[in-house]
Amino acid sequence: MACRNPLPLSEDDLLEILIGEADPNLLDCLEVDEASRERYREWVDFYRRLQRAWYPSSQTLVDYVSELLDEAHHQAVSAHVDECRQCREFVEYLMEQTVSSEHV
Questions:
Q1: By its UniProt entry, which InterPro entries does this protein fall under (predicted)?
Q2: Does 42 lie in the same domain as 62?
């Protein structure tokens, strides 16, 4: 498929790609435009730094699902999970794995 968007991609376009909500055409555009790819790589690096700073670690989410956190920490993680699609999906995955392993 050929890119049908103006290049370079806008910041909104790059954000849609980053959060996984982009239509396939935007991905095609990213593939053909070096300037957009470079800006996207910068966004990905920034996003990863933000995740390390503000998101619960994977281990914290495992402890959350396993109910190993103290009440205050559990409530804080729960509030974050309610608002964060990425963490919510990871928690759902962990819960499915827990249920699967209990039935083995």
A1: Anti_sigma_zinc_sf (IPR041916)
A2: no
DSSP 33: -
Using one digit for the tens of pLDDT, what is the confidence trace for 30-86? 999 999 999 999 999 998 898 888 899 999 999 999 999 999 999 999 999 999 998
Full residue range of the structural domain in which residue 70 is found:
55-102
Q: What is residue 52's three-state secondary structure?
A: helix
The phi, psi pair for 54, rounded to 5°, reads: -115, -15
pTM for this entry: 0.60
In the chain, DSSP finds a helix count (H) and a strand count (E) of 6, 0
Name, in order, each residue with C-beta under 8 angstroms of 44's C-beta and a sequence gap of 6 or more. 18
